[in-house]
């Protein structure tokens, strides 16, 4: 359906995330992938969704010559715990530390998605609450040894083993925890195509 709605547009997904790329394929959307490296630091006064909004907009700012028919999509995800952001761990020790912090706690997963054309920009975000059971050190070690926590905000993937055994409940969009609030992406692209 989106393919038809967006037949006069070219969609650029600026993400190296295989999960986000899979989501776009599942939406039956024609798109190309183009990633530009940026500095993902942010001003220290920003909190919560302000952080992900800012970074997704910074990712868009790296694209300075969009054509009239192009829609650029950039995004960013963080885990928000005890008034602090957990991003992607830099090493397995950091991943272990993050999972220990998440153990037995509720945290929020925040994803912002920025839609940019040559003359328009809109940023949306979604927040999902996630409750973890108390994780044992052996469960954390098993997950880190057998999966890839380093490319995921907060050091975990809800769709992986740790999600199966560790998550007691969620409130909000499951796909947002995987890195993309798909229904918001679908709605925003549909609205943009008919502007």
Structural notes for this entry:
This protein is α/β, with parallel strands linked by helices. The chain has a single domain (2-193), classed as Alpha-Beta Complex (Maf protein), CATH 3.90.950. It contains eight helices and seven strands. Strands 1, 2, 3, 4, 5, 6 and 7 form a seven-stranded mixed sheet that branches. Strand 1, helix 2 (18-26) and strand 2 form a beta-alpha-beta unit. Helix 4 packs across helix 5. The longest helix has 13 residues, at 49-61. The model has no long low-confidence stretch (mean pLDDT 94).
Give keywords.
alpha/beta, Maf protein, 195 residues, 8 helices, 7-stranded mixed beta sheet, 26% strand, elongated
Indicate the topology.
Elements: H1 2-5, E1 10-13, H2 18-26, E2 31-33, H3 49-61, E3 70-81, E4 84-86, H4 92-102, E5 106-116, E6 121-132, H5 137-146, H6 161-166, E7 167-171, H7 174-178, H8 182-193
Parallel strand pairs: 1-2, 1-3
Antiparallel strand pairs: 3-4, 3-5, 5-6, 6-7
Helix pairs in contact: 4-5
